[in-house]
Amino acid sequence: MQAYRLSVHRTPKHMYAQIISPENDTVAAASTLQAEVKQALKNGKTGNIEAAEIVGKVIAQKAKKAKIKIVAFDRSGFMFHGRVKALAEAARENGLKF
What we know:
36% of the residues lie in helices and 23% in strands. By secondary structure, the chain is of the alpha+beta class. β2 and β3 form a beta hairpin. It starts with a strand and ends in a 5-residue tail after the last helix.
């Protein structure tokens, strides 16, 4: 059985997260480019741990709406620390299991 995937991508200025179905369709997406994420930022900076945590929270909320509870974490080759780790922990705290 294949699972849904939480794919993460980061750049120096932004964080992106997508939930991808086993058929390779994007079910949910969140990034620091979205207005709802930018409004939640206190200092307006999108390339920090705070922004990654907000993206993790938003992607977990969108997954709940799509009735997805369990995902495989795809860090896209990025090391599991800093912003990638913050996004993953925020997604876990908001209900995603991986």
